[in-house]
Amino acid sequence: MVTTSLILLGSAVLIYLSCELFVNSIEWVGKRFGIAKSAVGSILAAFGTALPESVVTLIAVVFGSNASQKDVGVGAALGGPLVLSTIAYAFVGWSVISFRRRRSQGTVIDLDRRKLGRDQLWFLLIFLCNLALGHVAFRGKQWTGLIFLAAYGAYFFYEMRADDKESALEVLEPLKFQPRRSEPQTFWILLQTTISLLLIFLGSNIFVDRLEALSLALGMPAHIVSLLLSPIATELPEIINVLIWVRQGKEQLAFGNISGAMMIQATVPSALGIFFTPWVFDRYLTFAAIATALSVAFLWLTLRNQKLSASRLSFAALFYLIFAASFAFTR
Question: Highest mean pLDDT range out of 35-44, 74-83, 113-122, 207-216?
Fold first, then answer.
């Protein structure tokens, strides 16, 4: 138990340090290749940080040898959006409040509210389709996974075509691998990005493995681990990126990372689940999907009514707590 706890702590530290390297290098990638600031968060950062959860789903549904293992993959596909739409968004609010004295804008949230609201609406529509498919069965159902892949493809190209002239003028912190150069070389930018992603992936896998070992030692059932605990572990990179970017006053990147990762996980892992499993939800998966949809709807309505604030963002965590409570009482 002590050894497992120490490994958990060590892997969390590794993820944090890797994320420090990653957010530093991914901003330079965006600037070097002329990518809009919004796409740096929603596409580049989201792709890197969504890898752990996507790989968990891929391995479980494609290579799982029994129904139980495939169920873990489906749980991971739904658990990721659940944690991102509740805990991660709440963490933005908590971080803004915690770092308000270090931020030049205090608790004011610098954000393109219209874009974030549009992203939430698109995610909600796609996710409700996921939920509906989880309660029906018909011939050729597995091919509907192609629709979700196409949806992410459209989102990817739309985001990458965004134009943001401020990104080219923004002054960035020196690249960690070349701290003395005001304009680091492309090779070192890409090398730091690659190494940081490998370390994030390594740290996340160690964290998930040890978390599952700890839950088994405590006698917790596998379905609780796959829906409640593992997603928190695999979404740790996004949460740490939030902390780093909000501390730097770059919450637009933090929001982009979360919403972009949500779009990936609502489409790519879900498509894998639809391809390789019956994609049938039990009550726990249904509860998770409903909690996710309610949290996203809450954020969308808050944005639409122009009432977004750090304190209101914090309320997103309540939807996760309600789901956890319902999970516990219906076992």
Answer: 113-122
Judge whether 308 and 302 are in contact, CB under 8 Å. Answer: yes
Helical H runs in the chain?
Answer: 2-32, 37-39, 46-49, 51-63, 67-83, 89-98, 113-133, 145-160, 165-169, 186-217, 222-224, 230-234, 236-247, 251-276, 283-304, 310-314, 317-329
Determine the Cα–Cα distance for residues 289 and 285; give it in Å rounded to an integer. Answer: 6
pLDDT band for 223, please (50, 70, 90 cuts).
low
Q: How much is the average pLDDT of 89-118?
A: 91
200 in Cβ contact with 15 (< 8 Å): yes
What pLDDT was estimated at residue 260?
Answer: 93
DSSP string, 263-300: HHHHHHHHHHHHHHS-----HHHHHHHHHHHHHHHHHH
